[in-house]
Amino acid sequence: MASITALRDAVAAVTADLDTAALDAAVRVLAACRATGGVVLSAGLGGSSSTASHFAADLTKFTRSPRQPHLRSVALLDNIACHTAWTNDDDPGLALAHLAEPWLPSHPDAQDAVVLFSVHGGARDGSVSRGLVELAAYAHKQGAMVIAVTGFDGGATSDLADVHINVPLRREPLATPGIESVHLLVAHALCLALTDGGSR
Description:
Blueprint: H1 2-16, H2 20-35, E1 39-44, H3 47-61, E2 72-75, H4 80-89, H5 95-100, E3 113-118, H6 130-141, E4 145-151, H7 155-160, E5 163-167, H8 175-193
């Protein structure tokens, strides 16, 4: 019971301190993507991959409105067959960037976006989560905006992000489950803000 209480309290504290300016900036990026007919690509590794998939589903369906263009969103790792083909046939660190190639840029006038979910944000020496860092770099080369949703100190993806939303838990064993839990809340908050006036 003590571990449950500790996780609850840690998550409550960081949730109360979430950077609302960063959340607002992310909403503006996603709204521009929708307004210009762009595409939102999402990605994460491990548990964060499921958050990215959930986010893409909610962006596509939950934000749908007769008064707004339909927001197009793809979770890159939902295509696991293509991902494993790239990791098998080329540098595995480039697999996510290769998956993004057919989508970016979506069309000449689009403001596309890439949303990365990562507990550590990728090691700055390239030893962990290099694929996310390569994806962020590729997205910028294609003119897309990058939103990084991270934990700990934000890692390498935060260095490349146009918008950085950080959940600053640092100590295990609470950090990973706490960060991943708040990341899902962030994903839901962004989608809710993209509905009509935050209401349905």
